[in-house]
Specification:
With 318 residues, this protein is mainly beta. The protein has one domain: Autotransporter beta-domain (Lipocalin, Beta Barrel). Helix content is 5%, strand content 52%. A hairpin with a 2-residue loop joins strand 13 and strand 14. The longest helix has 12 residues. It is elongated and about 60 Å long. The two termini are 22 Å apart.
Amino acid sequence: MVYPMKFPGKLSGFAFLFCALVAQTPQADIGDGPRAYLPPPIDTDVFSLYGMKVSGNSMIGSGRVTPHLNLDVDLVVAQYTRTMEIRDRYISFTAVQPAGRLTSSLSLPNVAIAGAEASSEGLGDTQLLLTAGLYNLPPLTKETYRDYKPSFAVGGLARFTLPTGKYDQQQSANLGANRYSLQLGTPITLGFGESFLDPRLTTIDFLPSITLFGNNDDPSTGDTLRQEPLFKLETHVTHNLSSGFWLSLDSVYTFGGETEADGTAQNDAQRSFGLGGSLGLQFSKSLGLKASYGKIVDHNENGLDGEFIRLTLTYARL
């Protein structure tokens, strides 16, 4: 589809970054972030560095919730994304490696003295992501990108997490989850604008997903921990205020994930709802910054709780 409107070269560079900045966030518990699956041009390399501070009752990305856990985490996350065309389809591959430090303690009800503090530092679990355009997400080149008018689009997502992070059975929380997991999702986007270059572009994103967990054969209690699938619905409403600045309202709803310890159901299915906001700034066609804040505003007794701050510095090699 060719739209006759023309945009200046500077704006074209910024528009590339609108999508380059949306490289997938590596912790699904707090959401992948706004416009995480809009396609940048094919043959683009995106390098991202995240700084994150999280407090709550679950190690990010683990899928596990410990209701009386007090957890503080500082993370640095390195990420690389490559976009390509395979058999006339848009494909994106992402590798993610977190590292950081956490401190944790248990505060049990009706107990005067809180549990002893524990700390850990090192690498977190490595993640590999594959995304693809399934409907109305063609493989756009740098030349055709400026003429594509966004509308309704559907993609596919597979996120594979490997148990490479630091893990200690004696700890109440760890940087690694000590098990494999697979998240499958369907990113859905509604776009309102003349093109991805439109300085007033508005997008609405939905990401329904299911995460399947392998067993943890060395949990802190018992011999084997199993977990039922965890369902999530992530949504974002994002609007460009100019060619170099956008704002987003974010939400994540989580439910399911009941655990089973040594064959005994724990009756601990999760339910939580979080709200937050993001803003993006483009300094040049290759360099940008994104800031996000989120907080759990409603949950059941076994659900996620806490808040996070995330800063993302991104460099795109076009």
